[in-house]
Automatic annotation (TrEMBL):
Signal peptide: 1-27
SUPFAM superfamilies cross-referenced by the UniProt entry: Periplasmic binding protein-like I
Location within or outside the cell: Cell envelope
Principal cellular location given in the protein's record: other
Protein name per the record: LacI family transcriptional regulator
Domain of life per record: Bacteria
Pfam families in the record: Peripla_BP_4 (PF13407)
């Protein structure tokens, strides 16, 4: 009788303990804000972060700013007023949202950015080293050309990462003067950016027909548009070198596709970065580990990997 009572008591205690632990996990809420979910990379980070948080039993409020700075600020305000326990911002705008991030800090809500840039009001930003990424893509392209010839470039000045990549390309070209940038197109930040790239690059290709041996694109989305244009013009793989940055299933498919002209990409591990943000919140906010145990500066850098025909099979699912 006594043993039976003890077993029942222990079982009840275990259930109660489990329920309390479960309730504590459920009580923790994280806000995940992506600046523009129509951008594949933004979505990959935000979805990976949300999935990792839910896997820990946390409540997730996931928001999409749809590329609007006013909406981005409003959504951060909403999370602060809601008193979430932590915030992850994918490709955010810390300068434009400085007031909202400061409000979060004053409210005791830790914020971690991913590919957003540093802010004194955030714990840190998880980044690929864009200077290293830019050098990797530029030098690979020049290597494909034998360090001589003409190139076209598709740039994007509206994002710090792509802007840095372009500046590093300029530095590489300044030291390798046998390669000339014949012309470049700068993409506008619009909802119809694909049409913008298509029209701009098509004009450059026509103006420089037969003069370029390579094309540099600041991110993979631009490279898809350029690749389609080149194929429509009857060009075949190997006719020119087309190099970009980001990585993802569609890029790997094109690198492996004998019809596609995409030669290589520098793969940034977006899903892993979203997961790292949640792991860092778990360590710093939940487990109360010092922030310096995760990173000592305003950035937590992750490694990027160049993917071309030699290793693309490793990335194909």
């Amino acid at each position: 009788m006594f043993k039976s009572l003890m077993r029942s008591t222990l079982a009840a205690a275990c259930v109660a303990g489990f329920s309390l632990a479960s309730s504590a996990a459920q009580a923790f809420e994280v806000g995940v804000v992506a600046f523009q979910m129509s951008s594949e990379t933004h979505a990959r980070v935000a979805n990976a972060a949300a999935e990792a948080a839910r896997a820990k039993g946390w409540t997730v409020t996931q928001l999409n700013s749809e590329g609007s700075l006013p909406k981005h600020a409003e959504q951060l305000d909403t999370l602060v007023h809601k008193k979430v326990d932590a915030i992850v911002v994918a490709m955010g705008k810390p300068i434009e949202a400085d007031a909202q991030l400061e409000a979060a800090k004053q409210a005791g809500i830790p914020v971690i950015g991913v590919m957003s840039g540093a802010s004194p009001h955030m714990l840190f930003d998880i980044e690929a080293n864009e200077y290293k990424v830019g050098a990797e893509s530029a030098l690979y392209l020049l290597g494909q050309l034998g360090y001589q010839g003409g190139i076209l470039a598709a740039r994007f000045e509206g994002n710090s990462g792509t802007r840095i990549r372009g500046k590093v390309l300029d530095a590489v070209l300044s030291e390798n003067t046998a390669v000339k940038e014949l012309a470049h197109f700068s993409m506008a930040r619009t909802q119809s950016w694909r049409d913008d790239v298509r029209n701009g690059m098509q004009a450059l290709m026509m103006q420089n027909q037969g003069k370029f041996q390579g094309i540099w694109a600041s991110f993979d989305g631009q490279a898809y548009v350029i690749d389609d244009l080149l194929q429509q013009q009857g060009m075949k793989k190997g006719d020119i070198a087309l190099v970009s940055t980001d990585g993802g299933p569609e890029t790997y498919r094109r690198i492996a596709d004998p019809q596609s002209l995409i030669t290589a990409t520098v793969m940034i591990p977006f899903e892993a970065m979203g997961q790292s943000a949640i792991d860092a919140i778990d360590r710093i906010v939940v487990q109360k580990q010092p922030k310096d145990s995760v990173t000592t500066g305003p950035y937590l850098f992750t490694d990027a990997v160049l993917v071309d025909k030699h290793n693309v099979d490793k990335f194909l699912k």
